[in-house]
Predict the 3D structure of the following.
Amino acid sequence: MSVTSLYEAADLYDLVHLGPWKGEVEFYLRQARRWGSRALELACGTGRLTVPLAAHGLAITGLDLSPAMLARAQARAAAAGAAVRLVQGDMRDFDLGERFDLIFIPINSLCHLLTRSDVEACFRCVRAHLAPPGRFIIDVFNPSLAILGRDPSRWYEVGEYTDAQGGRVRLTEQNRYDPAAQVNHIVWRFEADDGRRREHRLTMRQFFPQELDALLAYNGFALEAKYGQYGEGEFHSGSNQQLIVARAA
Ligand SMILES: C[S@@+](CC[C@H](N)C(=O)[O-])C[C@H]1O[C@@H](n2cnc3c(N)ncnc32)[C@H](O)[C@@H]1O
């Protein structure tokens, strides 16, 4: 079976990511009230977050590499009657010819930049597109040593979902972590009731907390806040996510 990127199977992405997480939209709306509503979402995917934010009045542009993900974002925006500008592009190398009050990379998309030079190229583009006093927001995992240390030959349960036809789909995953590169090589296996099986890969660089703060600092950003959840509770060792608000230093 060929194992292609999850982002070529946008329907399966949406099967698992039904909508915004609890408190996520409200978090970005609070940031927009503080810093302004011209927003750029990097790696916007199928518009899971883009479209609800547009519906709440943000003037939002979404940029993504995958035509399949963008096609679903376009359909989602049309269905909601939301005005969203969608651009196919690479978050490591883009020039949109305008500046934004808020630039954000939600739910772990930064993890698709596998090398330091990729991350630094992205941060350079972000700096060039921020309008003072704009803010840059990153939302990534706080790496879980338990998950990274899993047995790479085993399949682990993720969940069960209902597809558009009402069928049940079971999702399991396998991962092999490369500690030198800090890259987690994940395969998601989707098994439908009728026995049909599809496998897709997700390759995710892990950013350890001190490393991410340093990467931002060395690339010209001042860390303004680091939260551990959308409710803006402080980041701590037990936090599952690193939610950073930074500004150009
Ligand atoms: C986890 S999904 C996030 C989608 C969306 N932001 C959301 O919140 O549901 C990651 C997205 O990153 C996109 N992506 C991966 N590498 C990229 C790159 N270099 N530039 C732009 N988008 C990229 C993928 O196509 C995918 O849509």
